[in-house]
Design brief:
The structure is a homodimer. By secondary structure, chain A is α+β, with helices and mostly antiparallel strands. The first copy, chain A, has helices at residues 3-14, 48-51, 59-75, 96-112, 168-171, 176-185, 198-209, 224-229, 234-243, 259-269, and strands spanning 29-34, 37-47, 80-90, 116-124, 129-138, 154-158, 190-193, 212-216, 250-254, 275-282, 288-292, 295-297. At the A-B interface, helix 1, strand 1, strand 2, helix 2 and strand 3 of A face helix 1, strand 1, strand 2, helix 2 and strand 3 of B.
Chain lengths: 310, 310
């Protein structure tokens, strides 16, 4: 049993207890709180030995990232982030001065997105970890799940992908404004933030939506970092863009008739954020078919997907 | 700087960002979600090397406790628990089978209190940890903070105290029903769950409420476990009752005129749960004065209070 099958096991067990609009298995859970308002909840934990080395990353960047990955989850629901709590494990090799700098990075981003730190807990521990739980709000019809992609929808992705390890995995700006713009002015049918890699996260959408997809390999936005990381090798850079984790860009689907208008409005609203239409949703295959210049091609060879913590 | 002064430092910093009815510094935070409803949020983390030894406690008990301590926080606010998320760090020495048993204990308690597990996160880690964030609901006037104790109020405590290490720290039943009964039918002015020890948690209430207290040493409810732990020595057992952590009983204050009625109604509603009136709130000294059989006595010698994780 790996991490993903264990989560599926937990999802089934948990679904017997209580009733919520959306539980385990999306970027965030959804709870009813009022007639016209739903609560969106996401949680992410970062651990010293797994996600970063304390010697290699500044405490400010680690603190910033602990919150940023959670903001990205709220963005992927099309919701407005409001507040968060944070539990921290403090090992002996982490000083109070280090911890203050960690919170400096965290609070600086929380100020930028106007989300309040409303609580937390401390424990001593053998290695540093930080578990953030974030709350957002949305009107019921505003929330975008992973499960609504329909045949004929177009798929878009924000920004440029791959090579985030060079820089962006720490200083990316969570696509909160972009997610809200989409959920408030259009009707995206599915949305996810790209944390595990484009292909893997797209697979999550396809499974939830019970749909397949045709992707245009020549429309995948490859980042300059991806080209740099792969020493200028364009084929390798493209593979990076398809499979590297921690891009934290938004991947979403919309009905075809919204595509032209969305493209136009996006350019006005976010002139500096690239928007790429990379393919369309087809029938219920749950698979990815590939095209280049409009012609079917075989699947590119990707590195083994699915980092499991188990 | 110890853990408590660091939390105070964070509280001041966090208060500049956003506006919430109640942020860092109580058993739980309070957020406005609707006109007639507030969201109550608490978080607690348990760590293998600090809170338990995996070899000494069954996984079911550890899972149960991870949720129970959070339910206790919601109880102390007089709110109704609704849902939770959980982040888990899984070290190599913890198997999937162990983890399933951990969740068995957790889900069994969540079913008992009808709270849904709505999400979570996994990471590998060097030692096991579990960070639970719980959400509750309450009507705005129902919420009981630590800060409202007034001169003349009586102080009560549920259950019997001390020696929880023998048994109760794992299998205590969170006082959710009792907390709700108090917040719905009476007007408790302050409430806290006893997690750090009676005297220390009472000190939190006094500091928040800017009040002092006279405690009747002969009215402190000493548990049988406390007597057992102290090999029958009654003086030592009393010290345990005053200072042992993890009792998870409720300590609360009410206006004097509610005392008789509350005592009567409590006996009907919770015939098996002891309720002890242990003292009264006095002026703004923020200190504890002691009495025995109505006469002033000097303060009992307590072990050094205030376990700091720093």
């Amino acid at each position: 049993m790996n991490e993903f099958s264990f989560i599926e096991y937990l999802r089934k067990r948990a679904s017997n207890i209580g009733r919520v609009p959306l539980g385990i298995g999306d970027d965030a859970a959804v709870l009813d709180v009022a007639k016209d308002k739903q609560l969106v909840v996401a949680t992410d934990v970062i651990v010293e030995s797994v996600d970063f080395k304390i010697s290699e990353l500044s405490p400010e960047k680690i603190g910033r990232k602990a919150l940023a990955v959670n903001l990205s989850d709220i963005a992927a629901m099309g919701a407005t982030p409001k507040a968060f709590v944070i539990s921290v494990g403090k090992p002996p090799h982490v000083s109070v001065a280090w911890l203050k700098r960690f919170y400096n990075g965290l609070f600086s981003l929380s100020k930028q997105f106007d989300v309040s730190c409303v609580g937390g807990d401390f424990s001593s521990s053998k290695e540093f970890f930080a578990s953030v739980t974030i709350f957002g709000e949305a009107r019921p019809f505003q929330i975008v799940k992973r499960s609504g992609a329909k045949k004929g929808d177009w798929i878009a992705v924000t920004g440029a992908l791959g090579g985030s390890i060079l820089r962006r995995h720490c200083d990316f700006i969570p696509r909160v404004m972009e997610g809200l713009f989409l959920s408030e002015h259009f009707t995206p049918t599915a949305m996810i933030d790209i944390s595990d890699g484009l292909v893997q996260d797209l697979t999550h959408v396809l499974r939830s939506s019970k749909a397949g997809v045709v992707l245009d390999l020549d429309r995948i936005p490859v980042s300059l970092d991806s080209i740099k990381l792969n020493a200028g090798n364009k084929t390798k850079a493209l593979i990076s863009a398809l499979s590297d984790g921690e891009d934290f860009e938004l991947l979403f689907t919309v009905p075809a008739w919204q595509k032209a208008n969305l493209t136009r409005e996006w350019k006005k609203k976010f002139p500096k954020v690239q928007l790429s239409w990379i393919g369309t949703i087809i029938g219920a295959s749950r698979k990815i078919s590939w095209r280049r210049n409009g012609k079917p091609i075989s699947s590119p060879k990707l590195p083994r997907q699915g980092f499991s913590h188990f």
